[in-house]
Amino acid sequence: MAPRTLFDKIWDSHVVETLPDKTAILYIDRHLVHEVTSPQAFEGLRLSGRRLRHPDATIAVVDHNVPTSDRTQPIEEAESRNQIETLERNVKEFGVPYFPLLSARQGIVHVVGPEQGISLPGMTIVCGDSHTSTHGAMGALAFGIGTSEVEHVMATQTILQKPAKNMKVVVEGQVGPGVTAKDIMLAIIGHIGTAGGTGHVIEFAGSAIRELDMAGRMTICNMSIEAGARAGLVAPDETTFEYVRGRPFAPKGEAFDEAVAYWKTLAADEGAHYDRVVELRAEDITPVLTWGTSPETVIPVTGTVPDPAAEADPGKRAQMQRMLDYMGLEAGQKIAGTPVDVVFIGSCTNSRIEDLRAAAAIAAGRKVAEGVRAMIVPGSGIVKAQAEEEGLDKVFLEAGFEWREAGCSMCLGMNPDRLTPGQRCASTSNRNFEGRQGPGGRTHLLSPAMAAAAAVTGCLTDVRELI
Amino acid sequence: MDKFTVLSAVAAPLPEENIDTDKIIPARFLKTTKRTGLGVHAFDSMRYRADGSENPDFVLNQEPYRKAEILITYDNLGCGSSREHAPWALLDFGIRCVIAPSFADIFHNNCFKNGILPIVLPHDVCTQLMEDARMGGNARLTIDLPRQVVVRPDGTEVPFTVDPLRKKLLLEGLDDIGQTLQHEKEITTFEERRAKAQPWIPRIVLD
Fold first, then answer.
1. Chain A within 8 Å of B80 (Cβ-Cβ)?
2. Does B17 touch chain A (CB under 8 A)?
3. Residue B120: its pLDDT value, please?
4. Strand B117-120's sheet: what is its strand order?
5. B69 lies in which domain range?
6. Closest CA of chain B from A8, distance in Å
7. How many angstroms separate the CA of residue B26 from the nearest CA in chain A?
8. Domains of chain A
9. What is the pTM of this model?
């Protein structure tokens, strides 16, 4: 057999059948369900009289819509409440395992899956959410799907798909102080662009990736979709196995050893073919952030806002100008020192315990700058409890941060956590699109440490000045 | 799902790259539990001003494009969120065909699942079609799916490619669950084989 990549191996082991036009019926091991992209799928099953084939391969949580303030009170927004109640009716009717709002295990679906040992190496994992790519950090093939496909997976436990192309992004070397997984990934997106990975699955490799902990790898894979890729992957290794060991839904005892033996066979074979290879030097990556309304608008925090006049293509020039106008920035201005109104530390990109520790290290002994609203939204109830055990909540509260309940929150502003028009936000989330965090809101994407630095200085700041 | 065969309609030019699905339908409108009714919010932030009034500069607020059934843009249309509310909003507005030099994967897929035909054509061809679209209400484009051509107002034809299976489903207005379930025996066989080979794969059962 020809040498195969990690992606090839997972793909091959899940093909139920290949149709004449090369479309595969691909078996799905894990289906993660949340309240926003599932109601129409459950409704479809009901209308067609179909059953949900494998409730025991399915898990549901509420995350997108939920308030991150006091939850003992009923949810105020009627439409959000309706969507959550609809999910609760649906999981009951179709027998789907569910972590309800008041469960300690509730949280952002892409934090909960790995945390509970539900997402495992070598699996195929789907969810009606583009950031499903996060689970690729486990060495699983994980990708976002639309609601019609959600219904398809519910009914058949498979999906119809053609194989993606293989791409490898290699980051060799050692990053400098203040440079995190988020900086590495933003640098990659800035380098290849938001369509750089279209049609591909990206495998992240190289010493700088291997040295990341699982949270860092999740941050990297999470934003594969911002590079246009169908999914991101990191080959499972000892770091992965140690992470999985002992998690509630992971295999135990002998079953675990058997699983590890299989997982060790997944790494790419010597000489496996990649359709595209991109290489970056870790030493060249500095703390970065975005200046515009596309995740590819990445500059070093020490840099200046680019000038549209330097862009030859008139269409692109106009779009850059539009971004500058929307973001309230001037061409050529230094990005550091730009005042912020809001700091958001959270989202499926950066809300794990490691992210909160990094933010707390900067916040400790400092105060949130006057006039800045800074919020910490843990990725799950488990993350929140762990942080409280470590005393991080006190560090944040003493510094003047808000300490909130788990959910997607201000990453996409479906719940009450929203920017108001013109507000500028230093955000650890994944998208800086116009209006993403609230109509008229201005988003700068950056790492948790950089976000904390912005909170305590009141402006976009090079975190290395505070280390 | 409605069938897609031959569509003769007004096309709206939207000459932008990277139109993301947040732009097509912002998150605050995703709280519905239905597939319909989202058309009024399609392109909300571009279509309406802060006070809720229509932005007269936006193409879909202008005649004849209010009745557009075809949308032409530049690269990477539909990037970002996987929300199927984006094609639902387009469909509810009346769009049945989107033309661009490239599409984001998930959006491209979601279009087919809802009877919207996404057509990939080179950047300069998209520019030409936008010019056609700007000629006004009499300058209709015809999308002939059986013959796989776009017929321009002057009668010239631009061929396009489409996946044969997806073409069949569009022409017949079929959803693909029924089709996959014809392979249920193979799915069951796969499950049995794997249960033997990898018995350690846990089931998710809550206590």
1. yes
2. yes
3. 98
4. B11-14, B70-73, B97-100, B117-120
5. 6-172
6. 18
7. 7
8. 6-163+237-260 (3.30.499.10), 165-236+268-284 (3.40.1060.10), 288-465 (3.30.499.10)
9. 0.96
